[in-house]
Amino acid sequence: MVLRARTPARVALITGGGRRIGAAIVQALHAAGYNVVIHHRASATEARVLAKALNAVRADSALVLRADLLKVPQLQALAQAAQEKWGRLDLLVNNASSYFATPLPTLSEQQFDDLVGSNFKAPLFLAQACRPYLQKSEGAIVGVLDIHARDAPRRGHSAYAAAKLAHWSLIETLALELAPKIRCNGVAPGHVQAPVQALPSAAELADLADKRRQLPHIPLARYASPEEIASVVVFLASTAASYVTGVVIPVDGGRRLG
Q1: Those residues with Cβ within 8 angstroms of residue 166's Cβ, 6 or more apart along the chain or in another chain
Q2: pLDDT tens for each residue of 48-59
């Protein structure tokens, strides 16, 4: 009888992986066989609960790491810690994102720094930090964007939209710069169904009202589920997309057409 060496599980680092779309991406990648590194900044409880559940399914398959994505030294430490846990890194998912309205008359420098930092600066410098590990594994980077940054801009979100559009351009540029060893792609959701909060904030209520106004402009006549976004991330990371790079896939129910 010949014993075959067990192939090590691939490893994915997902920023903002404790909640919402990030948590759905973590779960989908874990179900696809990845070991997952769940990054968080403030959602420690949610990230730890998720990791505990995944480790119960498959022992030693989920790790929680905290980092402030606006601080480059912490990005470098995050990448190194993610690689050291299982000795490899195959996938970076730049999902974490600040999101709030910034009407021009009240836009502050602090708001600008937060939005640009989380949506553009962090994906850029985290890609830089992960590059040596992803080159070794011939891995991939997937960015989570927003269809409204390019095809359906929203009033009062100038800083957010500009930052997301910069991330969009970054994906296309990195696809050139990191080839042929690393593929770089993105997914651009439209409106995504968010969990109902018992006590929603004023910003969440405003966002919900905006979604309802946009529903008639969505050809598929519904919002996406977080799981539908996650499934496209898994596809872009998989061998099925091995000849795909520099592509951003809209997952918007046709909103950009309406």
Answers
A1: 116, 119, 120
A2: 999 999 999 999
Length of the chain: 258
The pTM (predicted TM-score) of the whole model is: 0.92
Q: Which domains does the chain have, with CATH numbers?
A: 11-251 (3.40.50.720)
The span from the CA of 228 to the CA of 254, in Å, is 14
CA 85 – CA 236 distance, rounded (Å): 24
Residues of the chain predicted below pLDDT 50: 1-3, 5, 198-199
pLDDT in tens, 203-243: 666 666 666 777 878 899 899 999 999 999 999 999 999 99
- Could you give the CA distance from residue 176 to residue 192 in angstroms, rounded to a whole number? 30
Q: Catalytic: 133? A: no
| Catalytically annotated residue among 34, 133, 160, 223 | 160
- 180 prior amide bond cis, ω within 30: yes
Q: Mark 41-67 as b/e (b = at least 16 C-beta within 10 Å).
A: bebeebbeebbeebeeeeeebbbbbeb
